[in-house]
Specification:
Helices cover 33% and strands 15% of the residues. The protein is built from three helices and three strands; from the N terminus they run E-H-H-E-E-H. Strands 1-3-2 form a three-stranded antiparallel beta sheet, covered by helices on one side. The longest helix has 18 residues.
Length: 133
C-alpha cells in the first residue's frame, strides 16, 4: 500500500527531459531539443544527479531553450509557499516535508483522495497564477 509520494518538480529549464543523467520523462516535447538526445527515463531509485555526463552537451541544450531558465527570487519562493499552503487547506492534503528551492521542489505527500498527478497540478497551477499576477 502506498502511504506517501516523494514528488520532485522543477522550474522551466532546470532539468531537461533528455538530461544525460536521466529525467523520468518518456518523451521530449520540444522538437528543437531532440538534437540533444531522446528522453532519458531512469528506472532505478537512486539519485543520478552527480553521475558523470557531458556538461557541454547539457549546456548547449539549455542554451537552445525558447526562454531563459526560471530561477525564483526569495520573494517568489515565499509566494509559492503561500499558494501551496492555500491549496493544502482547500484539498486537506498533508505534506510531510517540503523543500521549495529556487529551481525545483521536493515534497513528500501523504496519499490523498486525488491522484498525485492531479494534486501536484493543482499546487503548481495555484503557484503559477500567483506568480503571473
Amino acid at each position: 500500500m502506498v502511504l506517501a509520494y516523494h514528488v520532485i518538480f522543477s522550474t522551466y529549464g532546470f532539468w531537461l527531459p533528455n538530461d544525460p543523467r536521466g529525467s523520468n520523462s518518456d518523451f521530449v516535447g520540444a522538437k528543437h531539443l531532440l538534437k540533444f538526445g531522446a528522453a532519458t527515463k531512469v528506472r532505478d531509485r537512486r539519485s543520478h544527479a552527480l553521475d558523470p555526463h557531458n556538461r557541454a552537451l547539457r549546456a548547449a541544450a539549455k542554451q537552445s531553450l525558447t526562454y531563459p531558465p526560471v530561477t525564483f527570487t526569495e520573494q517568489q519562493l515565499q509566494a509559492v509557499a503561500r499558494r501551496f499552503a492555500r491549496c493544502l487547506q482547500r484539498t486537506n492534503c498533508v505534506i510531510v516535508v517540503c523543500a521549495i528551492l529556487p529551481q525545483h521542489t521536493h515534497m513528500v505527500v501523504q496519499r490523498h483522495r486525488y491522484e498525485i498527478e492531479k494534486l501536484i497540478n493543482l499546487m503548481k497551477g495555484d503557484a503559477t497564477r500567483q506568480l503571473a499576477s
